[in-house]
Amino acid sequence: MGTGLREANVVTAAPGEERSPALALVNTRRLSAGGEVDDLADATGRLGLPATLGADELRRVTELRAAVRELLAALTEDRAPSADAVETVNAAARADAAAPQLAWPRREWRSTRPGSLEEALATLARDAIDVVTGDLAPLVRPCEAHGCVRFFLREHARRRWCSTTCGDRVRAARHQRLVVERRG
Ligand SMILES: [Zn+2]
Description:
The chain has one domain: Jann2411-like fold (Orthogonal Bundle), CATH 1.10.3300. It is built from six helices and six strands. The strands form three sheets. A two-stranded antiparallel sheet has the order 1-2. Strand 3 and strand 4 form a beta hairpin. The longest helix has 22 residues. The chain is elongated and about 75 Å long. The termini are far apart. The structure holds zinc ion (ZN). Zinc ion binds next to loops.
């Protein structure tokens, strides 16, 4: 985890990330002009993950992230996701159970493994299952900006990009193309 200002890492959350931690997880992997950027280490708190992840934990989180990405991609491409991705998400979702616990005089549903990585991964995996099977599913869209790999929830019919940065980039490229065409 770095400190100080890293210009390349300043990116706004995509629409819908506040409604779906699984979407936020997927979007921690993105592309920039300099290549692939991984924001996972900076996003652990936001995603309910332990602040620091060991190598094995990091591998499990990135595996789940790749599997959730595959679910979102399959959803938007109108195909079935790979069996591996489904199994990875299902395994994470069942690795922690919620049980009714008595907090006299109330009943509360609590994790059977509170504070564990399993609890955090299960929460993310269950959210992914909710997203692809529930009301949000028709809203999931890939960003249409060239070279962007993020997804967002299209809450406004005309939205095509995950961020104003991507929208501006597309508009700038279009403008550039027009200028070139006029010259030619
Ligand atoms: Zn984008």
